[in-house]
C-alpha cells in the first residue's frame, strides 16, 4: 500500500515538473519581444531570463522535496524493520522462558 501512494506522489511530482517546464517553454515561445528588430534577438529579454531563473529554482525546489521524501521513506522503512526485529526478539525470549519453566514441551 505504501508503494502505491509513493508511486502516485512520484507521478504527481513528475507531472507538476512537466507542466512547469512546458509552461515556461511556451512562455518563451510566446514572447512578443521576439518579433522586434534584429538587435533585440541577439540579447535575451529580462523576462526570458526571469522565466529561466524561475524554472531552475522550481527544479531545485522539486529536487530537494523529492530527495526529502525519499529519505523520509527510507527512514520509515528502517524504523519499521527495527521494530519488527525487536518484536521477534521479544517473542523468542518468551518461548525460551516457557521452555525453561516447563510450561511448554
From TrEMBL:
<feature type="signal peptide">
    <location>
        <begin position="1"/>
        <end position="29"/>
    </location>
</feature>
<keyword id="KW-0732">Signal</keyword>
<keyword id="KW-0472">Membrane</keyword>
<feature type="transmembrane region" description="Helical">
    <location>
        <begin position="53"/>
        <end position="72"/>
    </location>
</feature>
<keyword id="KW-0812">Transmembrane</keyword>
<keyword id="KW-1133">Transmembrane helix</keyword>
<feature type="compositionally biased region" description="Basic and acidic residues">
    <location>
        <begin position="38"/>
        <end position="49"/>
    </location>
</feature>
<feature type="region of interest" description="Disordered">
    <location>
        <begin position="27"/>
        <end position="49"/>
    </location>
</feature>
<protein>
    <recommendedName>
        <fullName>Transmembrane protein</fullName>
    </recommendedName>
</protein>
